[in-house]
Amino acid sequence: MSVHKEVKKVTTNTLQEMKRKGEKIAMLTAYDYSMARIIDAAGIDVILVGDSASNVMAGHETTLPITLDQMIYHAASVIRGVDRALVVVDLPFGSYQGNSKEALTSAIRVMKESGAHAVKMEGGKEIEESIKRILSAGIPVMGHLGLTPQSIYKFGTYNVRAKEEEEANRLIEDAHVLEKAGCFAIVLEKIPATLALKTAEEISIPIIGIGAGGGVDGQVLVLHDMLGLNVGFNPRFLRRYLNLFDDIKGAVGAYVNDVKQKDFPNASEQY
After folding, report:
1. Which residue in 61, 130, 169, 207 could disulfide with 103, CB within 3.0 to 4.6 Å?
2. Model confidence pLDDT, tens digit, residues 114-157
3. What share of the chain is helix, strand, coil (3-state, %, to 5)?
4. What angle do CA 51, 55, 57 make, to 5 degrees?
């Protein structure tokens, strides 16, 4: 009889405890079953099914084109590979902005059809009503401030946000709005480290940074970036842990060569 070891799942409550104890939160994106299985087994705390799937999985220039149906497909694939991590799903562009009723419908579809644990939304005060509505249905919400890629055409650039005092003050104000509305955590993207630290100190919920320095409660990166599957994307905040583009290209090249040279399959590789 095999004894199945019970896996202690990460919950929104776990993250709150981690912040309280000063234990850092590790978060990565994933978009499919195979990768989700690997990073969950490696001990990741939170998996974000990011709308960055629009870029790294579908080849779009921005995150805007990805649909709610496509996000649900990716999220359901990830969920099937996860035992421990908390799985958070981005609500894609156009599925919640400006309409709290539509926001709730989108969030319910994500939870029901994918089995995910929470949703993430970009924005501050302007989406407060949507956040409250989603929370009233019992769905946990993660916020996202700073560089919000769904608003890329408004900013016109992927540069660092909130360098000016006015925008910095608004960011902290928005963080308080999200906390008060009931968000369980907030992602801060590409903002000065001092501002991120100030926010993490002022706000009682976990603050996860991407390009926001080391003073926050946790870090998130896009999986394809940190594994070096993407080439040509080299922001300062990115640490590449592997160079898979070259490794995979080399392996595929060797396979092509072996097939052409009639070396594969050999005598022991056939029936």
Report:
1. 130
2. 999 999 999 999 999 999 999 999 999 999 999 999 998 888 88
3. 45, 15, 40
4. 90
Give the torsion sign (CA, 241, 116, 148, 176). Answer: negative
Locate CATH 3.20.20.60 in the chain: 12-240
Give the residues across from 189 on adjacent strands.
146, 210
Q: Which residues are catalytic?
A: 189
Give CA–CA dist 92/120, Å, rounded: 9
Cross-strand bridge partners of residue 144: 123, 187
Provide the pLDDT confidence category of residue 5 given band limits of 50, 70 and 90.
low
Which of left, alpha, beta for 103 (phi over 0: left; psi -120 to 50: alpha)?
alpha
CB 39 within 8 A of CB 47: yes
Q: Average pLDDT for residues 77-102, to the nearest whole number?
A: 96
Coil/strand/helix, residue 78: helix
Give the DSSP per-residue string, 179-199: HHHT-SEEEEES--HHHHHHH
**CATH architecture assigned to 12-240:** Alpha-Beta Barrel (3.20)
Structure tokens at 154: 């408004």
pLDDT tens column, 228-253: 999 888 999 999 999 999 999 999 99
Torsion of CA 163, 169, 175, 180, to 10 degrees: 180
